[in-house]
Amino acid sequence: MRKQSPLERVHNFEEVNLGYSEEEAIAEANRCLECSSPSCVDGCPVGVDIPGFIKKIKKGDFCSALALIREKNNLPAICGRVCPQEKQCEKKCVLSRKDRAVAIGNLERFVADYCSSSFGRADLSLSSASVAVVGSGPAGLTTAGDLARLGYSVSVFEALHLPGGVLRYGIPAFRLPKEVLEREIEYIKSLGVEIKTDYVIGKIKGIGDLLKEGAKAVYIGIGAGLPRFLEIEGEDLVGVYSANEFLTRVNLMKAYLFPYVATPVRVGRKVAVIGGGNVALDSARTALRLGAERVFLLYRRSSVEMPARKEEFENAREEGVEFMFFTQPVRIIGGEKREVRGIECVRTELKEKDESGRPSPVPLPNSNFSLEVDSVIIAIGTQANPLLFQDGKELERTEKGYIKVDEEGRTSMKGVFAGGDIVTGSATVISAMGMAKKSALAIDRYIRTGLWR
Ligand SMILES: Cc1cc2nc3c(=O)[nH]c(=O)nc-3n(C[C@H](O)[C@H](O)[C@H](O)COP(=O)(O)OP(=O)(O)OC[C@H]3O[C@@H](n4cnc5c(N)ncnc54)[C@H](O)[C@@H]3O)c2cc1C
């Protein structure tokens, strides 16, 4: 393992994509054809007026462009960095058919960074009606911000000691600097939202208590933070991490500064990361930054089926992550002290599509092989954390444990709405925000009219 000082590691976590200069932003905006019936907006789950804000960038009117984005999106500096634009707005851009789509995400990020200090404390008159929001990830922050703008008094209850959800503990600083997250959270607070941290709903209070204590409605945006495991031999060895634990140690607890902080993290010289999504890539790139010499990313399918953002895949490749496609782990090999020594895998081939719509990987007989590794990070998805439901038993859930809602986020409990990953399972920041926006409007209607459905 390369010897690094904690300070060197801080440097390693600096943002990779440096963003546009003013000239570059205007040049990129000028590529927009100003279509008479633009389809890019249809690709945005929160409905940002994309042609409108790009037109303002063309004129150099950057902060008006940001104001226009903020009408629909409370977290533009984040979305500009982490949204899968190539599957959404940019995919719909007419230029993508022949050439490269307008880089909508980079432009959104540019104005959000350029005008980062352009919001003062909003002068909103908050009504006496209060709403409780559980969870401060993208879903909770979006509902909270939208409701505060509508005049409600909003309190967000967050289990961790810092707000932001996956944006805080999952996505590493080299993709989403924590100052950017802080800035977006400050904006939400500037709308009058109160955020109470270290507050686990389901333990300290239940959903019913929040309603009894005066909340006119409750919004649940608790994500799906419980890791899934492979259920193979050796998963209990020392040096096996769930991606959630690994990334939380580094991003939230700043383990890269150990011994100056209390939380350590050890990766060793060689690391195997299992999975093919953003979480797996973030873990692999983080392990490299912590000093691992070789990081293998094991994925059962091919690069085509990988759900990760394209930019992250390319960056990971450039940084030296070694991709092993068509590879499925079958056993983690331990040493005398129950430490990870290696991982045994089989090769796979792709057959007909499974319920995820992707070709299903089938192990090839007699294709077993072993890799020598010092740690294993499992990034194969997450599921609903049952903690909240110790109290909220009336909340109807799906077979997989997610909360059942209608199209506007109404749950089976009157006055209680839900959205984001706790409804869909692990998805994206913008899909969580899109659902949250719909629920904010439905909550407003419910409080004003008293009509539930
Ligand atoms: C490592 C990683 C990388 C990702 N990269 C991308 C990406 O590049 N682009 C993208 O679009 N998406 C990405 N995603 C997915 C995306 O981050 C999630 O879909 C999104 O954060 C879901 O938002 P949410 O608000 O529903 O939940 P979360 O972000 O999970 O937030 C839920 C919050 O609720 C809190 N909470 C949980 N239980 C309780 C309780 N009982 N009481 C109080 N608070 C509670 C949690 O502590 C957390 O802060 C990534 C996910 C991970 C893990």
Give a short overview.
With 453 residues, this protein is an alpha/beta fold.
How would you describe what is shown here?
The structure is a single chain. The strands form 4 sheets. Strands 3-2-1-4-16 form a 5-stranded parallel beta sheet. It is an alpha/beta fold. It has helices at 6-12, 22-29, 50-58, 62-70, 76-82, 89-92, 95-98, 104-114, 138-149, 166-169, 178-190, 207-212, 243-252, 278-289, 310-319, 421-424, 429-449, and strands spanning 130-134, 153-157, 194-196, 215-220, 226-227, 240-242, 270-274, 294-298, 322-324, 327-334, 340-353, 359-363, 369-372, 375-378, 382-383, 416-418. It has 17 helices and 16 strands. The protein starts with 5 loop residues before the first helix and ends with a helix. It folds into 3 domains: 21-114, Orthogonal Bundle (Fumarate Reductase Iron-sulfur Protein, Chain B, domain 2); 130-225 and 384-449, 3-Layer(bba) Sandwich (FAD/NAD(P)-binding domain); 228-381, FAD/NAD(P)-binding domain. The structure holds flavin-adenine dinucleotide.
Return residue spans where pLDDT drops below 50 for at least 5 consecutive residues: none
The CATH architecture designation of the largest domain is 3-Layer(bba) Sandwich
What is the global morphology?
globular
| Largest sheet, spatial ordering of strands | 3-2-1-4-16
Alpha-beta classification = alpha/beta
**Oligomeric category:** single chain
The CATH superfamily title of the largest domain: FAD/NAD(P)-binding domain
Q: Determine the strand fraction and express it as a percent band.
A: 15-25%
Distinct small molecules bound, one entry per kind: flavin-adenine dinucleotide
Question: Would you tell me which CATH topology of the largest domain applies?
Answer: FAD/NAD(P)-binding domain
